[in-house]
Design brief:
Layout (H helix, E strand, L loop, with lengths): L2 E5 L3 H13 L3 E5 L2 H11 L3 E5 L7 H9 L9 E5 L4 H9 L4 E4 L4 H14 L5
Parallel strand pairs: 1-2, 1-3, 3-4, 4-5
Helix pairs in contact: 2-3
């Protein structure tokens, strides 16, 4: 069973993502702040991280930067999950080092395809 860390401060979005992932046979761990997300990533070493961008303390981009500083998390893909759909935001998020971008509201097929792809193949060599 693969473990996925969800970093999301919106309770409804967290429940939706958790329910989808668990229904598809994945274990989930959850954080509602960027700081907790980084801490849990280091402690649990999940197979995949789904990271909201707008978080109450540090944003998802800063949390990603801290995760990428930890050598033991090198192979862990981090996917941005955000309602920011402006092309400039999308490009900024991808340039910051996320492995992929999923928009909210979630398109179920796209979301599950993205999760499956990263759980099967991990991160592309950097």
């Amino acid at each position: 069973m693969k473990t996925i860390l969800i970093v999301e401060d919106n309770e409804k979005n967290m429940k939706l993502v958790r329910d989808i992932l668990r229904h598809n046979g994945h274990a989930t761990i959850e954080a509602v702040t960027g700081e907790d997300g980084v801490r849990l990533a280091l402690e649990a070493q999940p197979d995949l991280v789904l990271m909201d961008i707008q978080l109450p303390d540090i944003d998802g981009i800063e949390a990603l930067r801290r995760i990428r500083e930890a050598p033991l998390l090198d192979g862990v893909p981090v996917v941005a999950v955000s309602a920011s759909v402006m092309p400039d935001d999308h490009q900024k998020i991808l340039r910051s080092g996320f492995d992929a971008f999923v928009t909210k509201p979630i398109n179920l097929k796209q979301f599950l395809d993205t999760v499956k792809r990263f759980l099967e193949s991990g991160r592309a060599p950097q």
